[in-house]
Design a protein that fits this description.
Radius of gyration: 62 Å
Largest sheet: 6 strands, antiparallel, barrel
Helix content: 10-25%
Oligomer: single chain
Number of strands: 22
Order of helices and strands: EEHHEEEHEEEEEEEEEEHEEHEEHEEE
Strand order of the largest sheet: 3-4-5-8-7-6
Structural class: alpha+beta
Number of helices: 6
């Protein structure tokens, strides 16, 4: 402790009063200096030791813990008896010296703890009661436990995210879409898938090489290991070309033409091997109605085993394919469908919901290149009714040629009125009504206007020819016609034209 000069404002800043602080008249303040009592008087006067704030400054110089005398250092001005001098530095005779107190020194009144040496005694101050500290409440402990649980859960979630989050490249090593759901490949027999599964093994693809021309198409296997297809598919091979047939199991074999009929656009070929493929079931095209669901199967653009579906859009649709009056001209009273049919589908089957063939896909209507270049399916496909195909196939297998249905009349192509008019005069040596022919026997005359056939209104000559060609020789037709402004009815038995050799490409 040094005697440094302090201002009154500093008084008490350290919890004690400097020794040289005086009052206003120059006298030391009564409280400015500690009151020291001799050690032998502390108990005789019955007064408690004064808590003067100096008793814990350490042993007085020259003594070891208040009792053992230690020789003072030379030049310090302290006596050999030891003890504290006046803290102000005045001569010893101005300050009383006293020995060690009877008991432990009292704590300072205004001291502040400044470290380990300043701590209060372990047992506390004498006479001071230490209040008991209450323990934490149960509700507080519950709240703390909940907060700890929430904090642990949050930290765990954050840690999981940091460990599993995708990197900056967007890749996530733990990414998974899960397993595919369980299911079955079985389908109802009358569904498109069920029909396709039944029919596909009987459908074949044809590749024809005629040397100077080639073609591709489709076909289907019938009784006896024969394949029905279109005439225009195999016509290129008629002079001696080659035909290769590929089955649904992708096995291939060669085939030969058995017979073909350009007027109906049908042909029958015989493959060298069928590889156990099943024959297809033939239905009844007379039972087909508009709106029936249908499935078309074939090899459009060489895509083997293609399946498309749709409905029956119309019946008895007149279709003329090829050049008129040519040996390869075809007239069809066709089944119209919106099932997609494209080049390569020709000769393939059009089947009903039971997997039975109701038609042979043969033609499509297109917009033409001048109307935008579209030459594929636009939802207007045409199939030869299977009842007609059945008869032609039987005759081709039996005879190599098919009979051509006729009623023995020549039509007036210049007529623009309702119905179709029979020519009224001879042209190029041909009579309008063949003498003793089917029409002549039924009472039809030159110039008569045919209005209906079997209840179907006839709009033009193409439709009349297609309807007649669709009938087998021997079948009867009910014809309504007009003569001299009066409507009449006649029953005509369909005849057959003289058998002509099958035309061969030149």
């Amino acid at each position: 402790m040094t005697d440094e000069i302090r201002t009154p404002e500093a008084h008490g800043a350290q919890g004690r009063t400097p020794s040289d602080f005086t009052d206003d008249v120059g006298r030391p303040s009564p409280s400015s200096r500690p009151h020291f009592l001799p050690a032998d008087e502390a108990g005789s006067h019955g007064e408690p030791p004064v808590n003067d704030g100096w008793s814990q400054l350490g042993d007085p110089p020259g003594q070891g813990r208040w009792s053992q005398a230690v020789p003072p250092p030379e030049g310090t001005g302290q006596s050999a008896e030891g003890g504290w001098g006046d803290p102000s530095g005045r001569a010893r005779q101005d300050t009383a010296v006293f020995g060690p107190p009877a008991g432990p020194p009292p704590p300072p009144t205004q001291a502040f703890g400044m470290g380990a040496g300043w701590a209060p005694p372990p047992g506390g101050f004498a006479g001071a009661a230490v209040p008991a500290r209450p323990g934490p409440r149960t509700s507080t402990m519950v709240i703390v436990a909940v907060l700890v649980a929430l904090l642990a859960s949050t930290l765990g979630s954050v840690g999981t995210y940091l460990l599993t989050r995708p990197d900056a490249s967007g890749r996530d090593p733990s990414f998974s879409l899960g397993k595919a759901p369980s299911g079955s490949n079985s389908r109802p027999p009358d569904s498109v898938a069920g029909v396709a599964a039944k029919v596909l093994p009987s459908v074949v693809s044809l590749a024809v090489d005629g040397g100077t021309s080639a073609a591709t198409g489709s076909g289907f296997l019938i009784k006896g290991g024969y394949v029905v297809t279109n005439n225009h598919v195999v016509a290129a091979a008629a002079p001696g070309g080659e035909i290769q047939i590929q089955f649904s199991n992708r096995k291939s074999t060669s085939a030969q033409i058995i017979g073909r009929d350009p007027e109906s656009d049908l042909a029958v070929v015989k493959p060298a091997e069928t590889f156990g493929a099943p024959e297809i079931s033939l239905g009844n095209s007379d039972n087909v109605v508009v709106g029936d669901p249908v499935v078309a199967i074939g090899s459009p653009l060489g895509l083997v085993g293609t399946v498309t579906s749709g409905i029956v859009s119309s019946l008895n649709r007149p279709v003329q394919a090829g050049e008129e009056n040519s040996s390869d001209t075809t007239w069809l009273s066709a089944i119209q469908t919106d099932a997609a049919i494209n080049p390569g589908n020709s000769g393939g089957p059009l089947v009903n919901a039971g997997g039975e063939v109701i038609g042979v896909n043969s033609a499509i209507a297109t917009l033409g290149r001048s109307a935008g270049g579209q030459s594929g399916s636009i939802g207007l496909g045409f199939a030869i009714p299977v009842n007609h195909a059945r008869r032609i196939a039987e005759e081709l297998v039996a005879n190599g040629v098919a009979k051509k249905s006729r009623i023995g009349v020549t039509l007036d192509q210049t007529y623009q009125g309702t119905g179709v008019r029979i020519d009224s005069e001879v042209k190029q040596g041909t009579r309008p009504v063949e003498p003793d022919g089917p029409a002549d026997k039924a009472g039809l005359k030159p110039g008569d206007v045919i209005l209906e056939i079997d209840g179907t209104v006839v709009q033009d000559s193409t439709e009349l020819i297609a309807l007649i060609r669709n009938k087998a020789p021997g079948e009867k037709l009910t014809i309504k016609f007009q003569r001299g402004g009066q409507e009449k009815t006649a029953v005509v038995t369909v005849g057959a034209a003289a058998v002509q050799p099958t035309p061969q490409p030149s």
